[in-house]
Amino acid sequence: MTSTLTMAQTGKAVTEKKTFSRATSVSTDIKADPAIIWKLLTTASDYTRWNSTIVSLEGKIAPGEKIRLKSTLDPKRTFKLKVKEMDKKKRMVWGDAQGKRVYTLASKGNGETTFTMYEKIGSPMFPLYKKYIPSFDTSFEHFAADMKKEAEHIQNLKK
Predict the structure, then answer these.
(1) Residues in CB range of 69: below 8 A, 6 or more apart
(2) Exposed/middle/buried for 11, CB within 10 Å: 0-12, 13-18, 19+?
(3) Angle made by CA atoms 97, 101, 106, in degrees to the nearest 5
(4) CA-based diameter of the chain, in Å?
């Protein structure tokens, strides 16, 4: 798998396929404080404004809470997800029985933050339905680009 450093430089998604799972990740450097990125990640009602990959997101993004997400990848399907972990301004995990998505923020100390998004889906039954699941690569790249654009815009307004 490509290193996070390479992904951060390119902003391109990388997918690793295995028999019983698939993992996709993307990483990008954002010229913004982690607090700005964190607020964007944890404000459900604002997702559709800045994120072109989300059709709707309902619920409260907080530890143990459940959210309902519709993605442009399959707008007819509602994903019912649970917020499994939160380490404020550093890491958040949400998911369901089929997989989990991990968001991480790492301050570079120079006014930049590395934003990484990783999702692994799979199960013993994965080989039977994997052909019905579209690639996440383009969606992940758009999510990261949207995050970068919005966070840097907000950061610039603070100057």
Answers:
(1) 54, 56, 57, 58, 78, 79, 81
(2) middle
(3) 150
(4) 52
Beta bridge partners of 71: 54
Reduced to 3 states (helix: H, G, I; strand: E, B; else coil), residue 143 is helix
Structure tokens of 46?
Answer: 């604002």
Residue 56 has pLDDT above 90, yes or no: yes
Token pair of 12, please? Answer: 């391109």
- As a whole number of angstroms, the distance between CA 20 and CA 130 comes to 9
| CATH class for the domain made up of 14-155 | alpha beta
**HSE on the CB side for 45, CA within 13 Å?**
1
Size of the chain in residues = 159
Query: For the stretch 94-118, what's the b/e string if a residue is b when 16 or more beta carbons lie within 10 angstroms of its beta carbon?
Result: bbeeebbbbbbbbeeeeebbbbbbb
- Short-list 75, 51, 71, CA closest to 144: 51
Task: Report pTM.
Answer: 0.92
- The tens digit of pLDDT for each residue in 17-35 reads 999 999 999 999 999 999 9
Radius of gyration (C-alpha) of the chain in whole angstroms:
15
